[in-house]
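Supplementary Note 2. Why include the ligand at all?

Several targets in our set were suspected to adopt different conformations when bound, so apo predictions alone were not considered sufficient. For every target with a known small-molecule partner we therefore ran a joint prediction. The input for glycinamide ribonucleotide is given below.
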Amino acid sequence: MKRIAILVSGRGSNFEAIARNIREGRLEAEIAAVVANNPEAKALDTARALGLRAILLPSKGVDSDTYAAQVVAALAPLSIDLLCLAGFMRRVGQPLLDAYAHRILNIHPSLLPSFPGLHVQQQALDYGVKFSGCTVHFVDSGLDTGPIVAQAAVPILDDDTADTLAARILVEEHRIFSEAIALVLSGRYRIDGRRVIRLDV
Ligand code: GAR
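The joint prediction is reproduced in token form.
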């Protein structure tokens, strides 16, 4: 069974969706650890309630590379196949990128390359786009720049607020993140430049 670690900063609904998809047989994987950088993260309580290994590594005041080295050290004994950033709000430092090259996925609530960074649902509304959505991508050293594994589009309605749009995007996040994890864990893809190509096997 492939082993994943999930990095979180807050609510953890994407983590919960992954856990539910595993429990209900839609995703074959084992959650070996949930790592939070924020002591207030609700996801930590959820992980404990589900009987999962919950690791709190506070990142406040710690630079990205030092923090990444701490995460690498914490995960080293756990034989992790894939790292999943599920609402993890820190940049990923080089030691993690080196230790898990092409083995880190992030979920982002916009159709990249539009609207990287933070407060992206508001950015989409302010820009006036008619569709937004979500993206699962490999993590590289840029800000939300790695090769794209999966996307889903969500129409923007005239009466949307950042919150109503975020809620509709979240439904799609919960679906495509597990689909992308399944694809990457299966190894049935190749990366050609920026393109992640699914292999029929
Ligand atoms: C999700 O919408 C996720 O896409 C976003 O934070 C939210 C976390 O929700 N991530 C980013 O913006 C990463 N830059 P969750 O904690 O309920 O999964």
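The domain at 108-201 is CATH 3.40.50.170 (Rossmann fold). Residues 162-186 form the longest helix (25 residues). Comparable summaries for the other entries are listed in the accompanying table.
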